[in-house]
Amino acid sequence: xxxxxxxxxxxxxxxxxxxxxxxxxxxxxxxxxxPNHLFDGRxxxxxxxxxxxxxxxxxxxxxxxxxxxxxVYEAGGFPLEFPVTxxxxxxxxxxxxxxxxLASMDVEESIRANPVDGVILLVGCDKTTPAALMxxxxxxxxxLAISGGPMLNGRFRGEQIGSGTNVWKFSEEVRSGAMxxxxxxxxxxxxxxxAGHCMTxxxxxxxASVVESLGIGLPSNAAIPAVDxxxxxxxxxxxxxxxxxxxxxxxxxxxxxxxxxxNAVRVVGAIGGSTNAVVHLLAxxxxxxxxxxxxxxxKLGRGVPCLVNLxxxxxxxxxxxxxxxxxxxxxxxxxxxxxxxxxxxxxxxIGENTASAPCYNRDVIRPFDEPLxxxxxxxxxxxxxxxxxxxxxxxAATPALMKHRGRAVVFETIEDLHxxxxxxxxxxxxxxxxVLKNCxxxxxxxxxxxxxxxxxxxxxxxxxxxxxxxxxxRMSGTAYxxxxxxxxPEAAAGGSLALVENGDVIELDVEARRLNLEVSDEELSRRRxxxxxxxxxxxxxxxxLYVDHVMQADKGADLDFLxxxxxxxxxRDSH
Length: 575
Ligand code: FES
Prior knowledge:
By secondary structure, this protein is an alpha/beta fold. The protein is built from 20 helices and 14 strands. Strand 3 (about 120-125), helix 5 and strand 4 form a beta-alpha-beta unit. The site of FE2/S2 (inorganic) cluster has 10 residues, from loops. FE2/S2 (inorganic) cluster binds near residues 89, 90 and 198.
């Protein structure tokens, strides 16, 4: 029961009363061996764990939770770990992204319904980070996120190989006949050789860097390898710190301000981060009520050079990034492009945290004036093909293709692509523009990572490594190429992407931020009159809820009724 000299926390509503309700809340918890004094009104820290053996990137999270608990106890808190829906990127069908919003609802309601005063989010694999941040943002308690850390660098026959990036590369080599299947299979265990998430600058590493640059994680959160003992020390310190945050009532809304989002956009540009960060940050901002729009990505990203030489834009991996100085060194290098007065979870500003951050390897983290790629920020395109926007990652694209006109080779669905891509009679050459429809939020459903379409073998055999590809899909953060993504409105929502036909001319001009279908308005109207929306194969359950309510990519693909926050007040008890 609470002692009188403490501020009364939310959890005291459960554990404080001497009546029947208090008895029930304490008594059942005591079946785990928790002694009386833990119910004395100290802060209860919920450790929201996305652990699962089917999310291999997060499979080590029970051990990280134990390190957090040590820190919480040390600081006088009461840690309670709880599981939430986990999203394994490499496992889930049709795509983990379909379930990001579902997991966020689980996080939100689990926090709100339980006696929690402060929250630790244990996040790692791609979608677990945005899902947890979105759900927690809608509650707005003191919250600190800890990323699980990347795997150690992959090594195959003396070469460094990176998660995802080398899968795409090797797979194309097998298809072109340059790599035997037995080598391909041997590379599997060489790529994933320790606990942790993808160790390229894919979506997981990007979102871990976002956690750090938003200030919702501790300095160095992003890059410490999952198996490095310092990852566990960081978790221990996070456990101590979240207890202080509860005492200070330092809530998420004081950290996730407009300035924090602006900082995150610039860091994503400087690290050559994943295009997936676009939809995730838009969705998190939507929950938080921060005015942050798709075009902010372009405005803020202009003039941000890509400094970090990591796959898929460069050649190193996250382990190298950590040894070189990690995100703090990048933030320091960005100088005035960063709002240095943005507050972070450790109570200091991001400027204070990074003022003397060292860089130990100038080939991994380049100086601002000698970047890896001059334009690191993501570009947002407009035009009659994407009136509500589309995204391209210039640092991963082929410079010669950034301004291009070509004839469309259209695939109506992902199945159509799979059926015809290896057909030697497919009419396509290196000047063509591959167009994939019906892979957006509603169309797939879930906006799968299929935008980096494989190239036809007949082009691969001729040494062609990239052509322009456009779709309403996303692409893996570990992928590369001149790939236009997130076209909004998507084809399944009646966007003009649905009207593209084989042979139409498409113009891409990244410098001018333009993507146009060179077909007259009259002809497009004629085609629109004949267009039928595709039937969703699912008419019940979460799939139906999702398809009925998902917003387009330019709004972060959140469910429309989840935007905003409800806080944590629940007036009714269960007894
Ligand atoms: Fe989990 Fe890449 S599959 S981070």
